[in-house]
Structure formats: C-alpha cells, structure tokens
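Input (structure):
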C-alpha cells in the first residue's frame, strides 16, 4: 500500500517534472523533444491504467499524506470509476497533445514556454479530479484557471489573445470563489473535508436549511468552468489560444471540470427538486444556444467551440435529469465527446497549419492532397453525429432512452435534445466534408498532408472512438459502468451495443439524422438566418462582460478617489475615528462600561506632585506657540509618566519609558527643525474643535477599556506558566526579560524592525531636506548656505 501511495504521488508530480524539463529539452532537441516530453504523461497514464481491474470490481483507491492534522487538512486522493476515467483522459489525451504541439509549434521561439504551461495545466487538472481533500480540490481548481490564462494568452502580443485570457480568468476565477464558499458550507453541514467521506452524508446535506445556498454556490463554480449559459461566452473567445490548447483544455479537460464536479456531488446534492430543475433548465438552454451559435460560424475552431458549449450543456442536462438511464447516457457521452472533439480540434489545427486558414468558406478539395486527414475527420464526425459504428452512436441512443417519456418535462427536453443533436450533426459534417470535397481552391499556403506529429493524435482518438463501440462490452466493463456507478454510488451495468434497438429511441435517432442532413444541405441559409436573428437580438453576454468590467473599473476609480484622496489629515482622521469606534461602541452595545472607580484615599504628596507635573506638561503642549516648545513639553509629560511607573513598582517599564521618551524628543526635534513647515496652525476653529473632540474621545476610549480590564477578575494562568517555566525552559531568573527575549522573541524582533525602519525613514527625510537646501543654494546665489 505504501508503494502504491508513493507511485501515485510520483505520477501526480510527473507533469510538474515535465514543466521544469520542457525548456531545456526543447532547447536541445527542438520539435523532436516532444517525443521525450510525452514520456511524462505516458508514464502517468500507464500508472493509472493499473487501477482499472480494481476499479472495475467496484473498489476505490485512496491515499495521501497528512498536512495539517489539527485542521483535518491532507494531500489525499480518491480514485473511483469517475476520477480514474478523468485521470486516464487527462494523461492519455495529454500525451497525444504534447506530440501534436511538437509538430504544430515547430520552430516557434517560445515552444519551451508553451510546453511548461501545458504541463502545469495538466498537473492542475489531474489534481482536480483525483483530490479527496476539499482544500486541495479548490487549490487545483484555481490553478487550472491560472494556467489556462497563461495558455490562452500565450500569444500575448495580440490584443485579442490578452482579452480572451483575461476574460477566462475573471469568469472562471470568480466561479472558483463561489465554489470555495460552497465547499465551506458543505464542510459546515457535513463536518467532513474529504470527498470520499462526503458521499455518505447525502441526506444530511439535502435536509440542511443551507442546501439551496450551497447548491447555488457550487453551481456558480461548475457553470462558469463548464461554460453554461450565461457564462458560455468565454469558451469560444478562448479559441485565440493555439490549437493544441483548444484541443486539450476546451474539449477534454478544463471545461469538463464543472461537469466532473456535478457528477461527483450528484450522490450528495442530487435527487432534489432544485437540482432537477436548475441543471436541466440551464443545460438545455446551453445546448440550444451553443448549437445555434455554431451554425453561424465560418471559422472551424469556433464552430467546434460552440458545439463544445452545447455538448457541455447536454451533459449538465443529463446529470440533472435524475434517472438511471440519464446517468448512464452522461457517462457514455463524456467519453465519446472527449474522443471525437479532441480529434476534430486537432484536425482543424492541421487544416489551419497546412493551408494557412480556418475559414470554411475558403476551403475546398483538400481530400486530394490530405486524404489521411480527411479520413480522420470523417471518423470523428461520424461519432459526433451519433452514427454507427462509433461510440457516439451508443451515447446518443442511451440519451434518447433516458429522455423518452410521456410527461411534458420529458417531451420538452427530448425535443430540445433532438434539435441540438441535429445541429451538431450538421456542424460535424460541415467540418469533415466542406473543406475536403469539391473542386480545390487557392489557399494562403499550398496544402499538403501533415507530418506524423500532427496526425498521430487525432488518428488515435478517432480509432479509439471506433474500437470503443465495436468492443462495447469491454468498454462498459472498464470505463462506462464504473463511471455510472461512481455517479450513482450504486453498482450500475451498462449493456448498450451497436445492435439496433427497435423503438422510439431509434426513431428519434433517425429523425435527428434527417434534420441534420436538412440543415447541412441548407447550411448557408441557416447561417444567414442565424446572423439576422443575432443582430435583431442585440448585444449578448460577451458585450455584457465588457460593460460590466468597464463599469467595475469606473466604480473602483470613484471609490478610490473618495477613500484615497491623497490628503494625510483625512487618513489620520479616519484612523482615529475607527479607533474611537472600536474602543467605545462594543463597551456600550454589550453593556461592558466600567464601574466608576473609588477615589484613592492614600495618595501621597509627592505622587500628587508628579501627577501635576504631567498635567502641566500636557497643558504646555496645548498652549505652545511653536513646535520645538510643544516637543519639549511633550517630553516633560512623558518623563512624568515614567516616574509614575517607577513609583508604582515597574522599574523596567519606567526605564523603557525614559528611553523611548528621550529618543522621541530628540528625533522629533531633529526632524521638525529640519523640515520646512508652517510655523502657525492653519486649521480653522471648527477643525480644531473637531480634532480636539476626537482626541478626547480616543483618550476616553482607552481609559474606559483599561478600567474595564482592571475591574475584570484576574486570571493568573499566564503568571503561573511564566513563573513555572521561565527558569526550566528559558534558563532565566528575570521573568520579564525571559518573556521579552524568549516567549515573545518574534514580537520583540518585529518591534526592533519597526524602530529601525522608522529611523531609516527619518534619516531619509533629513537627507532629502539637506540635499534640497544645497541644490537651492547652488541655483540661487542670494540664498545663504
């Protein structure tokens, strides 16, 4: 078991190793370094592959290391059918993406930096899906946002790339904060901080009065990450990233993080009216919006990006639908989509790389010069369209089986799904046929077949989509059924195969194909009608994001001008107002005002004299006409206080007060006499009265607080502790010295650092003043030195 834990930890660290090694490997081997770098994710893939037999038997794999046991924090992982499948997709497709990027970015000056970013993202995404600890899940969740920001904005010299990266970071980062709040509420409700233990607290969570708030916060995190309406706009804009990023982040990994979270929390938060209303509604809306917007696009990557949005909506809708077949359909479609969409994105990149354009209206006849690429695109399109003999067909059949029903809800979502799948059918074959069929046209670059690094990845994914369907029994045993079992938390056996099941689901599949063919046949007209509709609808969420962000900047500027006007007296006044409120308001609100003290009857004459000296010193400060007199008078008052400390048995405190007061007088006198300040107090009478009242209120607050503290029962626990351990632990007989030097050593060091920094600041002020005077004297001969 210890060996498994160590190996798993090593597998999770392999992407980090790849990130560190990438710049050096690329510098030495160039584009061929991709073959070496691909070893890191391949080894991780092979490690996770070892767990398939155990997971297929219904077991789970847990492990990790304790981090902060007192807070129940650990670096731990939890592998079941769901997390293992995601880990295999991340590392398996990640291996192919590394190879693909080696060919796609060949000779790029920043290829090493790109590989570092892609490996960092891979490690973050792997951490999300295997994390058992809430804290580690959140940390890796936010790391995916940060690393995707780096990848989307990789071509940072283009404004569009910078905007897309910022947009993705703001949307997904904001959702991450919602997720953090939701996880904290889950912790509060269930009392556990591990996903593996949370699975057994479903009834407790669902019955909590905080369930709805927790659900909305979790959905905020999941919907933003998985681009659900109205947060869908960031994903198509992220196509500004290089195609390897699009193929990896936005088809198989990052955008599926929200789907993973919803699948993971289904046993805990599912099976409620809120869950079964919100998820199907937003998922169905996202499905329709994504496919409709995909029809309008002419850019290959944007067409695929919007269908990714629609596919994510379909997955969310299925997760929320609530039936066993819906969960099975979600499990099948999760795998099918990762395979065909990753392949199609890479095909789009190959076309762009070899022809110089992704505009579908400028591409024709590529089949003659790129036959292998066309075969790959056709195979992936068959799976996306839900046609046999590919895995997408099994997923689509199971989807219709799950949705078919006689009630209004089932009919509504069935109609939505048929409409969305028909449009996806049309888009799939628009990508796979339009650029390849017909008479060849001139393109910016002479087209030719891609090198092996480019076509290997999509070819493998397309073939896997075929083999997974042909050997469906094996696929269900090792992948589909364990995924569904993990989502339902009960054993599930999926048995759907390529053999047609005569009935309503097959009829719906046929209807989908017919509608898809019709849309494909009238694709130009559909594109035109969609463009007209969008112009009539007006600005969308993407424009709304710009408006919201600019409004936030303007609002922040106004707030800053109010709170940071650049005037020191306002800052000081606000500080003392807060101090006065903190001191007095709690005492009044909670009824903690001190009792009036009894007048002391045993005050000696010399003690009265010291008190009077302190009072006279304070009065002298108030009536002084120049700063030097006020500083000296303040010193008199401070020395009188030091004498009071001495008379009342605190010689060390008295000595400290003498030293501080002496330094204060000397430094203040030195500074004030060197700075050019107005000799008179320029404040109006009203300002003087306000400042005086504020000073009296602050003094009153400190007085009341100290009186209340002295009237509270004395707790001698610390006294006993210091008396007992000062000698035995710190080897000091003087308890006060031991407290300052040992028990409060760091605090004392901080105080010394503050005094040192203050002294340096004063020295800087004096030198600036002296330098200014010398410069003025050099420029004006009438000024005496």
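Output (sequence):
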């Amino acid at each position: 078991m210890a060996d498994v834990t160590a190996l798993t930890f090593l597998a999770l660290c392999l992407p980090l190793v790849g990130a560190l090694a990438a710049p050096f490997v690329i510098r030495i081997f160039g584009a061929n370094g991709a073959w070496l770098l691909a070893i890191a994710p391949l080894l991780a893939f092979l490690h996770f592959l070892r767990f398939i037999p155990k997971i297929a038997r219904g077991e789970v794999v847990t492990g990790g290391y304790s981090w902060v046991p007192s807070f129940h924090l650990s670096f731990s992982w939890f592998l079941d059918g769901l997390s293992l499948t995601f880990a295999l997709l991340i590392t398996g497709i990640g291996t192919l993406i590394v190879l693909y990027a080696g060919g796609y970015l060949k000779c790029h000056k920043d290829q090493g930096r790109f590989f570092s970013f892609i490996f960092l993202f891979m490690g973050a995404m792997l951490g999300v899906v295997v994390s058992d600890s809430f804290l580690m899940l959140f940390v890796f969740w936010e790391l995916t946002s940060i690393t995707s920001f780096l990848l989307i904005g990789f071509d940072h010299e283009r404004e569009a790339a910078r905007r897309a990266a910022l947009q993705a970071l703001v949307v997904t980062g904001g959702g991450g904060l919602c997720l953090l709040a939701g996880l904290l509420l889950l912790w509060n409700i269930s009392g556990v901080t591990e996903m593996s233990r949370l699975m057994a607290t479903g009834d407790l969570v669902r019955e909590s009065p905080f369930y709805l708030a927790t659900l909305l916060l979790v959905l905020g995190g999941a919907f933003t990450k998985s681009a659900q309406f109205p947060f869908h706009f960031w994903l198509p804009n992220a196509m500004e990233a290089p195609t390897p990023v699009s193929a990896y982040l936005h088809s198989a990994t990052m955008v599926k993080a929200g789907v993973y979270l919803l699948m993971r929390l289904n046993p805990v938060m599912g099976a409620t009216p809120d869950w079964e209303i919100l998820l199907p509604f937003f998922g169905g809306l996202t499905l329709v919006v994504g496919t409709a917007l995909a029809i309008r696009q002419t850019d290959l990557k944007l067409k695929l990006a919007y269908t990714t949005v629609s596919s994510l909506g379909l997955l969310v809708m299925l997760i929320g639908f609530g039936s066993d077949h819906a969960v099975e359909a979600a499990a099948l479609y999760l795998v099918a989509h990762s395979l065909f969409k990753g392949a199609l994105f890479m095909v789009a990149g190959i076309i762009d790389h070899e022809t110089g354009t992704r505009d579908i209206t400028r591409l024709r006849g590529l089949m003659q010069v790129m036959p292998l690429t066309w075969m790959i695109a056709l195979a992936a399109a068959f799976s996306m369209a839900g046609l046999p003999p590919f895995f997408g067909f099994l997923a689509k059949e199971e989807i219709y089986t799950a949705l078919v029903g006689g009630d209004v809800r089932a009919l509504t979502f069935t109609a939505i799904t048929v409409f969305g799948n028909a449009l996806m059918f049309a888009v799939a074959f628009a990508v796979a046929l339009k650029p390849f069929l017909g008479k060849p046209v001139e393109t910016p670059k002479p087209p030719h077949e891609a090198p092996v690094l480019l076509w290997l990845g999509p070819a493998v994914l397309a073939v896997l989509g075929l083999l997974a369907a042909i050997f469906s029994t094996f696929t269900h045993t090792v992948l589909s059924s364990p995924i569904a079992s993990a989502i339902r938390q009960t054993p599930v056996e999926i048995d759907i195969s390529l053999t047609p099941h005569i009935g309503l689901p097959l009829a719906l599949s046929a209807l989908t194909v017919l509608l898809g063919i019709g849309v494909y046949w009238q694709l130009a007209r559909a594109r035109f009608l969609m463009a007209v509709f969008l112009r009539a609808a007006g600005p969308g969420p993407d424009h709304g994001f710009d408006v919201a962000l600019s409004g936030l900047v303007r609002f922040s500027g106004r707030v800053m001008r109010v709170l940071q006007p650049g005037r020191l007296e306002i800052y000081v006044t606000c500080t003392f107002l807060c101090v006065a409120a903190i001191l007095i308001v709690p005492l009044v609100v909670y009824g903690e005002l001190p009792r009036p003290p009894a007048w002391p009857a045993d005050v000696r004459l010399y003690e009265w004299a010291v008190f009077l000296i302190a009072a006279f010193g304070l009065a002298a400060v108030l009536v002084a006409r120049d700063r030097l007199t006020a500083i000296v008078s303040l010193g008199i008052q401070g020395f009188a206080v030091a004498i009071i400390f001495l008379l009342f048995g605190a010689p060390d405190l008295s000595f400290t007060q003498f030293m501080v007061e002496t330094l204060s007088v000397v430094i203040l006198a030195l500074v004030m006499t060197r700075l050019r300040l107005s000799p008179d107090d320029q404040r109006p009478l009203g300002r003087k009265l306000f400042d005086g009242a504020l000073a009296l209120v602050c003094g009153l607050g400190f007085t009341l607080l100290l009186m209340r503290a002295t009237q509270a029962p004395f707790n001698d626990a610390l006294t006993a502790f210091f008396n007992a351990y000062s000698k035995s632990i710190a080897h000091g007989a003087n308890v006060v010295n031991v407290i300052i030097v040992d028990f409060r050593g760091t605090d004392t060091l901080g105080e010394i650092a503050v005094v040192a920094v203050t002294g340096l600041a004063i020295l800087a002020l004096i030198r600036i003043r002296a330098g200014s005077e010398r410069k003025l004297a050099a420029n004006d001969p009438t000024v005496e030195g």
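Notes: The mean pLDDT is 87. The chain has 33 helices and two strands.
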